[in-house]
Each structure stands twice: as structure tokens, then as C-alpha cells.
Specification:
- The protein has 84 residues and is an alpha+beta fold.
- The protein has one domain.
- Helices cover 30% and strands 24% of the residues.
- It is built from two helices and five strands; from the N terminus they run E-E-E-E-H-E-H.
- The protein is globular and about 35 Å long.
- The chain starts with a strand and ends with a helix.
Amino acid sequence: MALRFVGIDPNTDLEHCPTVWADEEVGELVLQGWKAGPELRAACEENSPAKGGVPAGEEVIRIPARMVPMIREACDAVERSVVQ
């Protein structure tokens, strides 16, 4: 697995922080974030076109907007790896 570290939320400690990686080998973003609380999870399920809620193998997470540049960088890296 060729994970490329992109960044950590600069406003959190280095133990509990949203993080962004790009898996350029398979062309995917890998995100670590804060688990959504029950209200946000319910809102996501209510507003999702998919039926049946969030599957057991998936989770709703929060990533702060200040990390958008890191997410863009990871998207660019993944996009480049898929196009090649």
C-alpha cells in the first residue's frame, strides 16, 4: 500500500486529529476525522438517496473546512495516479 501523507488538521493536537492521505496505488482518499454524533448521522441518513442508513462498514465523519487545501492536494494526487 502506497499511502502518501498529505496533512493533519493544524488546529488539533497530534494524537487526536483529522488527517488526510492519498492512496495513489488504488486511487482513493483516506480520511481520519471525528465520528459524527447521533444527530448528524441521523441527518445524513435522512438526506441520503441510499436506503437503509449507513452500512456497518462505513462511518460518517467530520473534517474541518480549514483542511480543504489538504483534501484538494490529496484529490489531485489520486487523480494523477488514476490518469497515468
